[in-house]
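Researcher: Structure for this, please.
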Amino acid sequence: MVAVAFVVHLAARDRLGALPGPTPVVSSGAADFPAARPALDLVVLVRDSDGASLAGVTVGVLSTTGPFPETYALNDDRGVERRARTDATGRAVLAAFATAPDGRAGFAIAWSQDVERSQQAGGLEVRVDALGRLEGRLLGLPAAELARARVRAHALTGKNPHSTTDGRSFETLVVDAAFVFEGLPAGRWTLELVDPAGARIDLPPLELGDAELENSLDPLEVAVAAGETTWVDLALVRGGTLAGVVRTTEGEPIAGALVRATFAPRNSNYPDGYVLHGANVWRFDSARGTESEHPISHPRTRTDGRYELTGLAPGAHRLEVVVPGRVYDRREAVRVEAGTRTELGHVLSLAGAIQGIARGGGYLGVARPGEEGARMIAILPGDGLFTFPGLEAGEWSVVRYHSDTRIRPVPVVTVTVEAGRTTWVDVDREGTLPLRIAGRVLDANGPVAGARVRLSRVVHVTDASRSSSRSPGRGGSRSRSRPAS
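Model: Predicted structure, token format:
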């Protein structure tokens, strides 16, 4: 069996530019690291449609290393893949997609506690069966405009309409405004149109109760049955385009930059769209990234210096540009209109990163001192470990935020970021919350003098004005945290 080790010290989003290299130097004192969970062996049981175990089945295994103990992501966006074969008992080490020698195939995935349950039951079960056929027509636009279009089928592995695929996708050409997939494993699939000319599938908005959610799409889902043909027609409309160039500060085009657009409702029910204090909230306490992305709502591409995202829905899109070692560029609420093209420019300087620990959970972010709003903000995991990558060199404030925007953010420590280095900070050791608690003690006759008020181990007595106050901390402290050498 292959042991799956969870990398808990790199809070997610290291793909956005957290710098590889030596372990960061703790800026003051020794850091209190949470205990790492032991490695976990994950097992898959491969069976046929009747439940009989199969031997000799080829199993595609995507990376199962996640940043948190609760994450069992089979489709790491780095595309790491291993292969294994089931033994005579039909057992294999963790698989998402299995193909039998006779061509039958199947896929499965489990998340968090579902993985624990499946392992307790002997392993995650994948059923292989005969392949199905999926075909249909493209309606609404002239066939001549679809000459370069392709249709992609992505294997869905969750019930939420924005759930990801298992990492397996199939693509077919559009011919005379029609498409055919000759063989797909049985299961639920979502369809995507890829068209350089900018056509897109006409999709309805998501619904919450009886209301339609603004700035949303409800992706198309198709059930493919084993050994059968499924027919679906796709209504098309013209979409919008976001295009641009990514350069260094010296003006050189950057090839290979990751560019991603996100189209999601801007509320807390949909974390990908949730904006707080001016920044999208990154969920450090749950699977995030490819594990929660859907190809319809999160189109992405790589640059050759330039990029182009076509077939986008009208509305407000978040655009992110990611180059490891350079500043992370995020544009919130970029407007897209049907049939229009929006050009953008991105200049990325060399960047550093802040890693650290902040106990107590809640919202933590970074901002330039004196700057309104957060550059990055996250919900902390239980162990308090975090990474804010892709930061330009200079002074940064690590800030405690609250989900109630009426409560003012509290800067707790200032960190000096150096380009090309990762700086470690223990927020609780180096920063103290500027907190003041005040109040009055009353009885039926009014204020009471001499009353003892306890807060944890601190006791105060109401004064002559019958009030009690406690200022347990000073203002946000300043830290010249040392970078990793």
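Researcher: Any notable elements?
Model: DSSP finds two helices and 43 strands in the chain. The chain has five domains: 3-128, 133-238, 245-349, 352-434, 437-470.
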